[in-house]
Target: Copper chaperone CopZ/acyl carrier protein
Amino acid sequence: MATPTFNTIAAILAQDFHVPPAQLRADDVLDHLGLDRRERLELMFAVEDAFRLRIPGHRLDPREPGITLQQVCDAVDLDIDTVAESTLSLQIPEGATMSQKFQVSGMSCSHCVSAVQNAVQAIDPKAQVTVDLETGHVDVMSTQPRQDIVLAIENAGYRVE
Model:
């Protein structure tokens, strides 16, 4: 059964490396899929970017031949679990103001900047929202949880990456 992690990695292989996803299995060796050392490194960078994490080289070194797709999935899942556990142990007091950064796409003018600022301030009137239209970076100082801010921005018609 394919997991969300497997499906995401399969999509990266299909899009960036032209490997047909229908033929992929967890026990496939990356070398046998036609990925050379450089391409294995590029795959790992793409996987890390997709999951917004960094896999330590001692856990999985893409320069080494013989790495299976399952090993890549396991490394990602282990890192996700580690981040989740450390996040759970972090106690943030309710109502604490936090600085949060977002990458937002779809903004093209000053109206878009105002729409994003207004969306965030609709859920937290005291929020400080700084938008860089050129880069799409949005910095927010707010008491609201990240998922609520993401939802507010997306409901205003923009994509949070």
Remarks:
- The beta strands are 98-105, 128-132, 137-142, 159-160.
- The radius of gyration is 19 Å.
- Residues 83-90 have pLDDT under 50 and may be disordered.
